[in-house]
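The instructor's notes for this session suggest beginning with a concrete chain rather than abstract definitions. Hand out the sequence below and ask the class to guess, before any prediction is shown, which regions might be ordered.
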Amino acid sequence: MFRFIYQKQVKIFLKIVFWFIFFIYFCYMVNILFLSQYRMNDPQGTYNIIPFKTIHMYIHYYDHFNFTIWFSNLFGNILAFMPLGFLAPLLINKLDGFFKVFLLSFFSTVVVETVQLVFHVGGFDVDDIILNTIGGILGYIVLLLVRINLNHLSKGKNNFTDM
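After discussion, reveal the predicted structure:
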Protein backbone atom coordinates (compact mmCIF):
# COMPACT_ATOMS: atom_id res chain seq x y z
CA MET A 1 0.00 0.00 0.00
CA PHE A 2 2.82 2.40 0.85
CA ARG A 3 4.41 1.66 -2.50
CA PHE A 4 1.18 2.65 -4.27
CA ILE A 5 0.97 5.91 -2.30
CA TYR A 6 4.63 6.65 -3.06
CA GLN A 7 4.13 5.97 -6.78
CA LYS A 8 1.11 8.26 -6.84
CA GLN A 9 3.07 11.04 -5.11
CA VAL A 10 5.90 10.64 -7.63
CA LYS A 11 3.43 10.92 -10.52
CA ILE A 12 1.87 14.06 -9.02
CA PHE A 13 5.30 15.58 -8.47
CA LEU A 14 6.36 14.77 -12.04
CA LYS A 15 3.14 16.28 -13.40
CA ILE A 16 3.89 19.53 -11.53
CA VAL A 17 7.47 19.52 -12.83
CA PHE A 18 6.29 18.93 -16.40
CA TRP A 19 3.72 21.76 -16.13
CA PHE A 20 6.47 24.07 -14.86
CA ILE A 21 8.75 23.07 -17.75
CA PHE A 22 5.88 23.61 -20.18
CA PHE A 23 5.22 27.09 -18.74
CA ILE A 24 8.89 28.03 -19.20
CA TYR A 25 8.82 26.57 -22.73
CA PHE A 26 5.62 28.48 -23.57
CA CYS A 27 7.06 31.80 -22.34
CA TYR A 28 10.26 31.18 -24.29
CA MET A 29 8.32 30.41 -27.47
CA VAL A 30 6.11 33.51 -27.13
CA ASN A 31 9.26 35.59 -26.76
CA ILE A 32 11.03 34.00 -29.73
CA LEU A 33 8.00 33.89 -32.04
CA PHE A 34 6.43 37.26 -31.29
CA LEU A 35 8.53 39.56 -29.10
CA SER A 36 12.22 39.11 -29.91
CA GLN A 37 14.18 41.94 -31.50
CA TYR A 38 15.04 40.01 -34.63
CA ARG A 39 11.35 39.82 -35.55
CA MET A 40 10.80 42.08 -38.51
CA ASN A 41 8.22 44.81 -38.48
CA ASP A 42 6.91 44.50 -42.02
CA PRO A 43 3.87 46.70 -42.68
CA GLN A 44 2.97 44.71 -45.81
CA GLY A 45 3.39 41.25 -44.30
CA THR A 46 5.36 38.57 -46.09
CA TYR A 47 4.14 35.10 -46.86
CA ASN A 48 5.08 31.89 -48.63
CA ILE A 49 2.34 29.43 -49.52
CA ILE A 50 4.45 27.24 -51.82
CA PRO A 51 5.45 24.06 -49.94
CA PHE A 52 9.21 23.43 -49.69
CA LYS A 53 10.14 26.74 -51.36
CA THR A 54 11.95 28.13 -48.32
CA ILE A 55 13.35 24.72 -47.36
CA HIS A 56 14.73 24.28 -50.89
CA MET A 57 16.23 27.76 -50.81
CA TYR A 58 18.11 27.07 -47.56
CA ILE A 59 19.31 23.66 -48.75
CA HIS A 60 20.26 24.69 -52.28
CA TYR A 61 21.83 28.06 -51.38
CA TYR A 62 23.29 27.05 -48.00
CA ASP A 63 26.57 28.81 -48.79
CA HIS A 64 24.78 32.17 -49.19
CA PHE A 65 23.58 32.23 -45.59
CA ASN A 66 25.16 32.77 -42.22
CA PHE A 67 25.28 29.39 -40.45
CA THR A 68 23.07 30.61 -37.59
CA ILE A 69 20.35 31.78 -39.98
CA TRP A 70 20.62 28.60 -42.05
CA PHE A 71 20.52 26.29 -39.02
CA SER A 72 17.72 28.13 -37.21
CA ASN A 73 15.50 28.16 -40.29
CA LEU A 74 15.91 24.47 -41.06
CA PHE A 75 16.60 22.75 -37.77
CA GLY A 76 15.55 25.42 -35.30
CA ASN A 77 11.93 25.12 -36.40
CA ILE A 78 12.03 21.37 -35.84
CA LEU A 79 13.81 21.61 -32.48
CA ALA A 80 11.52 24.40 -31.26
CA PHE A 81 8.39 22.24 -31.50
CA MET A 82 9.84 18.98 -30.20
CA PRO A 83 9.04 19.91 -26.57
CA LEU A 84 5.38 20.42 -27.54
CA GLY A 85 5.16 16.89 -28.93
CA PHE A 86 6.92 15.53 -25.86
CA LEU A 87 5.18 17.49 -23.09
CA ALA A 88 1.58 17.84 -24.32
CA PRO A 89 0.77 14.10 -24.07
CA LEU A 90 2.36 13.96 -20.61
CA LEU A 91 0.24 16.85 -19.38
CA ILE A 92 -3.09 16.15 -21.09
CA ASN A 93 -4.00 12.49 -21.55
CA LYS A 94 -6.42 13.29 -24.37
CA LEU A 95 -3.48 14.56 -26.45
CA ASP A 96 -1.66 11.23 -26.25
CA GLY A 97 -1.46 9.70 -29.70
CA PHE A 98 0.43 10.20 -32.93
CA PHE A 99 -2.45 11.76 -34.87
CA LYS A 100 -3.42 14.02 -31.95
CA VAL A 101 0.13 15.32 -31.61
CA PHE A 102 0.25 15.81 -35.38
CA LEU A 103 -2.94 17.91 -35.27
CA LEU A 104 -1.78 19.87 -32.21
CA SER A 105 1.57 20.68 -33.81
CA PHE A 106 -0.01 21.54 -37.15
CA PHE A 107 -2.76 23.81 -35.84
CA SER A 108 -0.50 25.45 -33.24
CA THR A 109 1.88 26.40 -36.03
CA VAL A 110 -0.91 27.66 -38.28
CA VAL A 111 -2.04 29.93 -35.43
CA VAL A 112 1.52 31.16 -34.83
CA GLU A 113 2.14 31.86 -38.52
CA THR A 114 -1.20 33.64 -38.89
CA VAL A 115 -0.61 35.82 -35.81
CA GLN A 116 2.86 36.70 -37.10
CA LEU A 117 1.40 37.77 -40.44
CA VAL A 118 -1.55 39.71 -39.02
CA PHE A 119 0.50 41.58 -36.41
CA HIS A 120 3.53 42.04 -38.69
CA VAL A 121 5.97 40.28 -36.35
CA GLY A 122 7.10 37.78 -38.95
CA GLY A 123 5.81 36.22 -42.10
CA PHE A 124 3.50 33.34 -42.87
CA ASP A 125 5.54 30.47 -44.28
CA VAL A 126 4.02 27.09 -45.10
CA ASP A 127 7.49 25.58 -44.70
CA ASP A 128 7.49 26.63 -41.05
CA ILE A 129 4.24 24.70 -40.66
CA ILE A 130 5.87 21.64 -42.22
CA LEU A 131 9.05 21.85 -40.12
CA ASN A 132 7.28 22.66 -36.84
CA THR A 133 4.83 19.79 -37.36
CA ILE A 134 7.76 17.45 -37.97
CA GLY A 135 9.27 18.76 -34.74
CA GLY A 136 6.12 18.00 -32.76
CA ILE A 137 5.97 14.49 -34.20
CA LEU A 138 9.65 13.88 -33.43
CA GLY A 139 9.06 15.06 -29.86
CA TYR A 140 6.27 12.52 -29.53
CA ILE A 141 8.51 9.78 -30.94
CA VAL A 142 11.14 10.68 -28.33
CA LEU A 143 8.43 10.42 -25.64
CA LEU A 144 7.44 6.97 -26.92
CA LEU A 145 11.07 5.84 -26.84
CA VAL A 146 11.49 7.16 -23.29
CA ARG A 147 8.34 5.33 -22.19
CA ILE A 148 9.49 2.09 -23.80
CA ASN A 149 12.89 2.35 -22.12
CA LEU A 150 11.41 3.22 -18.72
CA ASN A 151 8.95 0.34 -18.93
CA HIS A 152 11.73 -2.00 -20.01
CA LEU A 153 13.96 -0.86 -17.14
CA SER A 154 11.21 -1.22 -14.59
CA LYS A 155 10.37 -4.73 -15.92
CA GLY A 156 6.66 -4.12 -15.52
CA LYS A 157 6.85 -2.90 -11.92
CA ASN A 158 5.54 0.58 -12.78
CA ASN A 159 3.37 1.75 -15.61
CA PHE A 160 5.04 4.91 -16.89
CA THR A 161 2.61 5.27 -19.78
CA ASP A 162 0.17 6.87 -17.32
CA MET A 163 2.49 9.87 -16.84
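Then share the key points. The radius of gyration is 19 Å. The mean pLDDT is 91.
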